[in-house]
Each structure stands twice: as structure tokens, then as C-alpha cells.
Amino acid sequence: MKIDRIKVLETVVSQMLDMQPDERRQDGYIHLFRTELAAVLIAKKRGLDTEIAAAAGLLHDYEKYRTGESDGHAKKSADAILPLLAKSELFTPCEIGVIATAIAAHSDKESVGQPYEELLRDADVAAHHFMKDESAVEREYPRAAERFAKLKEEFSL
What we know:
By secondary structure, this protein is mainly alpha-helical.
């Protein structure tokens, strides 16, 4: 029987979130699982591996929600998930590298990178802003506005 790698990661993330204060736990569940879903949809559209995308989306803010600290959270999350994924033995070293690289780069919304870096940046933007109009995104998070507009165009929204 094949192990469902994403279910295992969802359980790990849920266990971590369940140990957090109420507001952080709620925000974490909403944002991490919403980003996971957005990442899978984008991966399907772009012909990328949905499991790698789901793992990156689910884990991209792991340290932010585990510690409550936002400063440098992309790099800290990438560093934190490396041993977690290696110990799980669910992903190859190459897959772990792709996931960690995407996570480390996801906060820099102005750069253009490798496909999974772009996918995760876009999934993060979608998770934060999908239910808002473009003018609200521009006001609240100007660095993401152009990326958000392109993502809506890609999905014909």
C-alpha cells in the first residue's frame, strides 16, 4: 500500500498547530491549508508535480506558525523542514531540495525564480488575497499586486 505523503505532512502540521495559542492556530490552519490547495491547483495548471507543490504550500510558513515570529520566516521555515522531511523518509533528497528552495524564496514576491519557487510565491499570494479585489491587494500588499493580477489572468478570473 502506497503511503499518502501529503496526509502524513498534513498530520504533522496539524499536530504542530494544535500546540499553538488559539489565534495563531486558527490563522495557521486557514493559511497553510489554503496555500496547499492553491499550490495544487497552480501545479495542475502548470504541469508540475502536485505532491511537491502541496508539500511546499503546506510547509512554507511552518516556523512562522510554530514560533509566532515573522522575521526571516521563509529561510527559517526552509531550514526547519529539512530535517523533518529527511527523517520522514517520504521524499527523495532532490524533492526535499526543491521544496526547501521554494520555501526559502517564497517571501520575495518581486523576484522570478524556478518553477516551484514561482508556484509557491503565487500560491501564497492567492491564499492571502484571493477573496479580495485587485485594488485592495494593491493597498495592503503592493509587492504582490502584479503577481496577483497575473495569476488571475492565468486562471481566466
